[in-house]
Design a protein that fits this description.
single chain, 20% helix, alpha+beta, five-stranded mixed beta sheet, 31% strand, globular, 22 strands, eleven-stranded mixed beta sheet
Length: 332
């Protein structure tokens, strides 16, 4: 099942995406809430009701009215929190090699994550950026999950059952802001907090069973053979696979849930896939060729991400009508 959040006029709704069309779930079953957060709070019971409606639409048993005029939102428009992991060794190793530093041994010892701004979550459409964001503006090609069941001290062996679904994720990054603040061993904060894109829909785990594959040796949890690509202005710049995750989502959940409640509506990203951002690509290019010309996102760029089974996420880079700069406020 593919769950979507969308807006008609000034109201947000919850629907299913079937064969290119969106159908409102509440209009099919009044016991189903008309927004994602309340739906996720209902847990397995509401998920099962929604899957029944989805199956009836696909079989032709019911023919609800499709939505004709809508704005597609992030599948989880108001997440209870948003964490981002660091699961792909290829990306970490390449980024460190490009900085001429050794691979950090701790990567292989435990999965890590940071909290980002859950109020800056958005879906397909325009990404509005301030002038300082354009100082080395970057995308990050990732997979994200949303938690569907409240849990605490969850083990990796049981963690996959807490996942309501999977999404494409673009963790936007302003690298100059990010690198400045991380010199002080804090962050990323202002380098990351302006936009995190998820979408276009939330895909339930049962739809991905055909892509199941073995986790990396010594690791626990589901892994999926899902091709991941990103294009900028129609030119492919990144290609990877979710199966390359060294730390599984189950293991990331285990760490996230230690001594704290995970809640329905919590979003967790995988971290960047290998080749999944300009920071890595530019570093590799300059390492191999001193004349390499680095590329960063510019106003008007179209960023399109696609992951097998999870769909196509499209955004355009827009400049805010402001000249305000926090970089200019630095003390000399």
């Amino acid at each position: 099942m593919k769950l979507v959040s969308y807006k008609t006029e000034d109201r947000e709704h919850l629907g299913v995406f079937v064969n290119g069309h969106i159908y409102n779930l509440n209009s099919c079953d009044k016991l189903l809430p008309d927004e994602m957060n309340a739906f996720l709070q209902g847990g397995v019971d509401l998920m099962d009701r929604a899957k029944k409606i989805d199956a009836q639409i696909k079989s032709g048993e019911i023919e609800p009215k499709e939505e004709a005029f809508y704005e597609l939102l992030a599948p989880v428009p108001h997440p209870t929190s948003c964490r981002d992991g660091y699961a792909f060794r290829q990306h970490v190793a390449a980024a460190r090699r490009n900085r001429k530093v050794d691979m950090i041994a701790e990567f292989d010892q435990y999965p890590i994550f940071y909290f980002t701004n859950h109020n800056a979550i958005q879906g397909p459409g325009d990404i509005k950026c301030m002038p300082d964001h354009f100082e080395k503006l970057d995308f990050e090609l990732e997979v994200a999950i949303v938690i569907g069941t409240k849990g605490r001290n969850i083990t990796a062996a049981e963690a996959d059952q807490y996942i309501a679904g999977y999404m494409v994720m673009n963790d936007m990054s302003a690298r100059t802001l990010q690198m400045e603040e991380m010199l002080l061993n804090l962050g990323p904060a202002k380098g990351k907090d302006f936009s995190t894109v998820i979408g276009p829909w939330l895909v339930t785990p049962d739809e991905l069973e055909q892509y199941l594959t073995a986790a990396k040796p010594g690791h626990t949890g589901n892994a999926y053979n899902l091709e991941m690509t990103c294009t900028v202005n129609g030119v492919q710049v990144s290609a990877g696979n979710m199966a390359d995750m060294d730390w599984t989502f189950a293991e990331i959940i285990e760490r996230c849930a230690y001594g704290v409640d995970l809640l329905p509506g919590d979003v967790i990203g995988s971290g960047t896939v290998g080749t999944g951002c300009f920071l890595e690509l530019n570093g590799t290019g300059l390492l191999n060729n001193p004349d390499f010309k680095p590329q960063w996102l510019q106003e008007g760029d179209a960023v399109e991400m696609e992951i097998t089974g999870l769909g196509h996420l499209s955004n355009s880079i827009i400049k805010e009508d402001s000249n305000l700069s926090i970089l200019a406020l630095k003390k000399k």
